[in-house]
Write a structure and sequence with these properties.
- The structure is a single chain.
- The protein has helices spanning about 5-30, 35-50.
- The chain is built from 2 helices and no strands.
- It is mostly helical.
- About 75% of the residues lie in helices and about 0% in strands.
- The longest helix has 24 residues, at about 5-30.
């Protein structure tokens, strides 16, 4: 019998993914490959998504 994955596992993976995405965006910003306004919007979106997990 297979066990159904725990929802908390998916939530943790989603938060890890979003944290990694946020770190990548911050690295792009440091390299001046993304403008500050877009960066702020993307970070706000990521934080909103992390809060919904």
């Amino acid at each position: 019998m297979s066990q159904k994955p725990d929802r908390r596992v998916f939530d943790k993976l989603e938060k890890l993914f979003l944290s990694g995405l946020q770190a990548q965006l911050q690295q792009l910003a440091r390299q001046d490959k993304i403008n500050d306004e877009d960066m702020a919007d993307l970070i706000k979106l990521i934080k909103t998504l992390k809060g919904n997990v």
